[in-house]
Design a protein that fits this description.
Strand content: 25-35%
Number of helices: 15
Number of strands: 23
CATH superfamily of the largest domain: ATP-grasp fold, B domain
CATH architecture of the largest domain: 2-Layer Sandwich
Distance between the termini: 45 Å
Helix content: 25-40%
Number of domains: 4
């Protein structure tokens, strides 16, 4: 069968790579893809933007696509899944109504409060002055979030009132529709972890855990990003934490969404803070994380296609994913200046040397080839170097050995991915 993966990031490259390995897949189309997916065995890029829903529908029909997999959140929130289903096309991902769990932080927080799901205390504001008054009554540290989608950069963990004031001004002043409302949250202490579950609208299958590094620079310094590196599994997330998360967060969420007439089908990303009182929900995402997906895909030893089809057909009980006991570490290389302004078109060399190392997978994001055939960076986060090994220490060493072989003066990466886990 033909499969369509929508997106251009490292997550979508990892999904395309994994799906292409299925014996049932003839070809994986990637729209729009990147230079990495263009060279991936069994894959073919198609120049269509992720928000060109009409064009993507025509592509799926014209190419006889049996399954479409949506990588990023924007087309999910925009209703791509609903449109595909109206056309009788099989698509993996939640409806626009279900994707509100990610698309609107105000919706999600109100939902959590109604259903007594453990999370941080919060308040929602549509105007600056009441938001500032609430902030001054609470003090810092405190968390300021834009209500809508902001590419992972609409969250500020403010350590001072002045920083929180600036964050509120930023949300209302420069994020457009995403900043129509601001959510101000209690600061939770503990260690973050991500947990992923496969859902068919009624039933749920736990997958795996990971730990992301959101800040741009070493030591968790600098602005929030879409993610600068990850490792899986997350040692901080114990079997007891998984049982609690499934019982108190995931299953109540699925039941409540179904009761609302918006059953959640797809990947539920559960962002958690593991504190002294146990896990609390930081946020939901309606899809795999990036770069968490890269680490998960190299650990998954089962056929991903079969799992997705089982979720679509409501037969999750027939699929039991097999995970390698190995650890996986992903180091993200980004263009200097990210997540702010950065140049485009800079040349990257040495990827062949990096991928020649054992246990290394290189997943591209926003890369392209110039007229001379050079690999170039066309965005912020550009490459994900993912290593799998028997221990976290070995995987970490391999990922950084590969990163050092890449020549890219305009690029940077954090040097402390998984360092805290090594110290624990």
């Amino acid at each position: 069968m033909n499969v369509l993966v929508i997106g251009s990031g490292g997550r979508e490259h990892a999904l395309a790579w994994k799906l292409a390995a299925s014996p049932r897949v003839t070809e994986v189309l990637v729209a729009p893809g990147n230079a990495g997916t263009a060279n991936e065995a069994g894959c073919r890029n198609v120049e269509l933007a992720v928000d060109d829903i009409d064009g993507l529908v025509r592509l799926a029909i014209g190419e006889g696509v049996a399954l479409t997999v949506v990588g990023p959140e924007v087309p999910l929130v925009a209703g791509l899944v609903d449109r595909f289903r109206e056309e009788g096309l099989h698509v993996f991902g939640p409806s626009a109504a279900a994707a509100q769990l990610e698309g609107s932080k105000a919706f999600a927080k109100d939902f959590l409060a109604r259903h007594r799901i453990p999370t941080a205390g919060y308040a929602v504001f549509t105007e600056v002055e009441p938001a500032l008054a609430y902030l001054h009554s609470r003090g810092a540290p405190i968390v300021v979030k834009a209500d809508g989608l902001a590419a992972g950069k609409g969250v500020v963990v403010a350590q001072s009132v002045d920083e929180a004031v600036a964050a509120i001004d930023m949300v209302f002043g420069s994020l457009g529709a995403a900043g129509a409302e601001v959510v101000i949250e209690e600061f939770l202490r503990g260690e973050e972890a991500s947990f992923f579950a496969l859902c068919d609208g009624e039933h749920v299958l736990p997958l795996a855990s990971a730990q992301d590094h959101k800040r741009a620079f070493d030591g968790d310094q600098g602005p929030n990003t879409g993610g600068m590196g990850t490792y899986s599994p997350a040692p901080v997330f114990t079997p007891a934490h998984e049982a609690f998360t499934m019982a108190r967060i995931v299953r109540p969420t699925l039941s409540a969404m179904a009761a609302m007439g918006a059953p959640f089908r797809g990947i539920l990303f559960v962002g958690l803070m593991i504190g002294p009182e146990g896990p609390k929900l930081i946020e939901f995402n309606a899809r795999f994380g990036d770069p968490e997906c890269q680490s998960l895909m190299v650990r998954l030893e089962s056929d991903l296609l079969e799992g997705m089809l089982a979720a679509l057909d409501g037969r999750l009980d027939t699929w039991a994913p097999l995970w390698s006991p190995d650890a996986a570490v992903t180091v993200v290389m980004a263009t200097k200046g990210y997540p702010g302004t950065y140049p485009k078109g800079t040349v990257i060399e040495g990827t062949e040397r990096a991928t020649a190392l054992p246990g290394i997978h290189l997943f591209h994001a926003t890369t392209a080839r110039d007229a001379a055939g050079h690999l170039t960076a066309q965005g912020g986060r550009t490459l994900s170097l993912t290593a799998r090994a028997a221990t976290l220490a070995q995987a970490r060493a391999q990922a950084y050995a590969a990163a050092r072989l890449i020549t890219w003066p305009e690029g940077f990466y954090r040097t402390d991915i998984a360092a805290k886990a090594m110290e624990a």
